[in-house]
Amino acid sequence: MQSRKPQGGSTSTALAFSVFLVVMTVVSVYIFWAKIWWFPKAITDFGHEIDSQFTRTFVITGIVFVAAQFGLAYAIFKFRDQGQKATYFEGNNTMEIIWTLGTIVLFVGLGLYARNAWAEVHFVGASPGALQVEVTGQQFVWNFRYAGPDGKFGRIKPELVSASTGNPVGLDPTDPASKDDIVSPVIVVPANREVELIIRSQDVTHSFYVRELRLKQDAVPGMEIHMHFTATDPGDYEIACAELCGLGHYRMHSILTVMNEPDFEKWEKDQEAANQ
Amino acid sequence: MVTHEDGGGHGHQHQPPSGFIRKYVFSIDHKVIGIQYLCLALFSVFVGMALSLLMRLHLAWPAAKLPFVTGGQMTPEQYLALMTMHGTIMVFMVLTTAPQSGFGNYFLPIQIGAADMAFPVLNMLSFWTTFVSLVVMLCAFFVPGGAPIGGWTSYPTLSALGEIVGPGQGAGETLWIVGLAIFCGASLMGALNFITTLIDLRTKGMTLGRLPLTCWTWFVTAILGLLAFGVLLAACLLLLFDRIGGTSFFIPGGLVVTDQVITWHKGGSPLLWQHLFWFFGHPEVYIAILPGMGVASHLLSTFSRKPVFGYRAMVAAVCAIGFLGFCVWGHHMFVSGMSPYSAFAFSLLTMTIGVPSAIKTFNWLGTIWGGKIQFTCAMLFALGFVSLFVSGGLSGLFLAQPSLDLYLHDAYFVVAHFHLIMGVAAIFGMFAGLYFWFPKMFGRFLDEGIGKVHFWLTFIGVYAIFMPMHYLGLAGNPRRYSEMTAGPFLIALQPVHKFITIAAFITIAAQLIFLYNFLYSLFAGKEAKEENPWHATTLEWSIPSPPPFDNFGGLEPVVYHGPYEFSVPGAADDFIPQHLAPNLVRKA
Predict the structure, then answer these.
(1) Other CB atoms closer than 10 Å to residue A170's CB: what's the count?
(2) Which of B32, B56, B98, B235 could form a cystine bridge with B41, CB 3.0-4.6 A?
(3) CATH value at residue A257
């Protein structure tokens, strides 16, 4: 049998392929690099840490991405069929070992490095003085409950839940501790003070997501999940639901307002007064 | 059942069945069944694409009136129903069936020198069970309430409480679960068959070290299927019991849905479903992609006229991916409320699975390096596969870190990641396989000219669709939103959504070019007169196109060479077929 003739258009196809890979790689990386679409500014120290870890990961994967795509582009053009004979080799154990060890160090190292940020948010609980806010997800709203002046969350009962009559979380009026509880459709927190969220759901799984906090936590029926943060920058921030919860998922949102301490105290007082 | 006791060269020919039904419908011929699976996948992929196009149009122009949508303008529940069915159909009916049950069924027996699968009747049964499962699932569109809206992951309690939590969660969701359970049964039968066939029916000389990499990936994929689908089957049954039997495996007590107290359920855990589902769901990713890796390796070697670089390392990497694939499911659950300590363990294991994936990529580059690359359509798709695999794989290194996942989880970054790696890369593997094997299967070539147009539009198109989704994810755009109108930051991202929709429209239109090529070439394509038009080495190229009913005419082929003997020094031709006796290899 005669050896196969070069495929028609071998050089132009090779060139097109290589050029496309290079252009695609450069454009993709540039859009990341230029931060045309990017995270909003973080408002916690933890958030800044996440951003640094993201950058580290981006630099490492970016280098691998560019090297792999450029390598592919180079090989496609360089080794296109021009009637040459292919070189015969079946592999190289030394190279296999080198790149196996190299990627282990790189990837697992990156994973180990990421431990710190995760540990900070999840391995350590909130400090005792933290402001506690209970977050309740339900189709398709968020409700936030503060313990009020007595510092104690009152009893809630599923059978008392009635969003239509203004008791969305089912506060039990017979429990004295529930009398001063504040229930609000938005969450207001003081700046520079730790906040502990107690996240729960009444019906299906939701997810509490604030981009500026760099935090997301599912609200799971039957579970109370704790999460904590200390916001530093006053302002209004969007809360989105990040777990599919039904037809209104896309519109299940609320606002996190971070206030300076005096403003927050005033807000709390106003809420308590409205509660009387 | 086909018997193989007559090895040693003097076999008898098996007669094909006569009659249309036995030959083409309830056939026990693995080749016919393979084509049936491919047809099922082809039908499903066009359905799945149509659903995604409607979704994309709605995302870009939420107020637009759309065809095939009851009422014209799409409601949120219609969007979520399309989304759920798009994911389900694509994952199960396309990505699970075509690469493994389709191509694997057709070519695994031939590549190992067998006359059929080990259990031909079981093989027929698994196809028709799959078919029933597709029909049951599609029925969900036509029941009151419509198709389910819970996504392909179907998390309880949304999936467990019934109609009360949303339209589609009644009869539609029940059909979905039943359909999926049936599919699990079909996949288990298929997996058993593949494993037995590969272990038992390899021909003389076909040692494990001479198996084509395609067969290795089909083998490992079958093992994954056997271990994973059983768990999904159990999960589906438990969920079904919760819905219709009053049990509470996944439903805790004290729930209130729109002011109505759920008193009849207590004690269950929604997280239990997530563990069971992802114990299946993560290996499923590899079920979809491993055969594509096999095809890519096979074609990169064939069309570079070079042996696969590091054959043993490739096999080891496939096995490592298969094994580690079962140890990483928790990375889907970093924000689920699962223990943060186990999250960290899952994270490290997930980073580790990047290592065999990287080895494969290096070895693919090593395979074409120093080669003589022939740009057939099959090769273009194989090269495209490598590029997409790299692009889709690297974003996994972000998502594998729980701290970064806190931000990126359930955002469009994830959508970009899994579409590139599990969707598009796997589909490129299938296209590569189809352009390569079409002449063997049908005796005619797919048109290379039309094929190139198809390749370029698709390759550029998928990058234009999925690369921008990473940027949406960085901006924090959550997934599974039926419109992006609820918050200012989402409205600001609308131009990106429009761009993606336009890219999707063009890319999907390009698939019509493929469909035309497929149908045209089937009946009027260039005839494949040679047995081995690509000058390939594996056994399927030693028999006529299309192969006779019993593949090797009753003879048992003998294998003398490894699968990728290209450009061997001292040989006259630049390929040595596996079945060629050493004394017949022409010297240079």
Answers:
(1) 21
(2) B98
(3) 2.60.40.420
Domain count, chain A: 2
Q: Do B489 and A17 touch (CB under 8 A)?
A: no
Q: How far is B416 from chain A (nearest CA, A)?
A: 13
User: What whole-number distance in Å separates Cα of residue A240 and Cα of residue A8?
Assistant: 54
Q: What is the mean pLDDT of residues B65-84?
A: 92
Spatial CA neighbour of B396 closest among B275, B499, B282: B282
- Of B117, B113, B114, nearest to B101 (Cα)? B117
Would you call the peptide bond into A173 cis, given omega within 30 degrees of 0 as the criterion?
A: no
- Using one digit for the tens of pLDDT, what is the confidence trace for B279-313? 999 999 999 999 999 999 999 999 999 999 999 99
Task: Indicate if A239 and A139 belong to the same structural domain.
Answer: yes
For residues A225 and A263, state if they share a domain.
yes
Between A and B, how many residue pairs show a Cβ–Cβ distance under 8 A?
Answer: 350
Q: Are B127 and B101 in contact (CB under 8 A)?
A: yes
A222 and A109 in a common domain:
no
Taking a C-beta distance cutoff of 8 angstroms, is the pair A218, B335 a contact? yes
| Cβ atoms of residues B412 and B469 within 8 Å | yes
CA distances from A274 to A181, A184, B224 (A): 11, 11, 60
Q: Return d(Cα B561, Cα B576) in angstroms, integer.
A: 8
A109, A172: one domain? no
Chain A residue numbers with beta carbons less than 8 Å from the beta carbon of B470 are 32
Q: A238 vs chain B: nearest CA distance in angstroms?
A: 7
Give CA–CA dist B178/B193, Å, rounded.
23
Establish if A2 belongs to a structural domain.
no
Structural domains of chain B ordered from first start: 33-47+81-268 (1.20.210.10), 540-588 (no CATH)
Average pLDDT on B549-564 reads: 94
Across the interface, whether the CB atoms of A247 and B149 are under 8 A apart is answered: yes
- Tell me: the pLDDT tens digits for B423-432? 999 999 999 9
Q: Where are the alpha helices (DSSP H) in B141-269?
A: 171-200, 213-244
Q: Tokens 């094909």 identify what position?
A: B16
Q: Is A223 on the interface with B (CB under 8 A)?
A: yes
Residue from A23, A27, A72 to probe the interface with B (highest B Cβ count within 10 Å): A72
Same-domain check for residues A162 and A104: no
- pLDDT classification of B12: cutoffs 50, 70, 90: low
Same domain, A74 and A180: no
Instruction: Determine, yes or no, domain membership for A4.
Output: no
For residue A192, is it left (φ>0), alpha (ψ between -120 and 50) or beta?
left
- Per the structure, the complete domain to which residue A40 belongs is given by 10-79+98-121
A157 and A53 together in one domain: no
Rounded Cα distance between B167 and B153, Å, is: 17
A40/B370 Cβ within 8 A: no
Instruction: Assess whether A133 and A116 both reside in one domain.
Output: no
Indicate the residue type of B313.
Answer: A
Residue A85 domain flag? no
Residue with tokens 């008392």: A160
Looking at the complex, report in whole angstroms how far the Cα of residue A166 sits from the nearest Cα belonging to chain B: 11
Helices (H) and strands (E) counted in chain B, each on its own, are 18, 2
Contact assignment for A138 to B256 by CB distance below 8 Å: yes
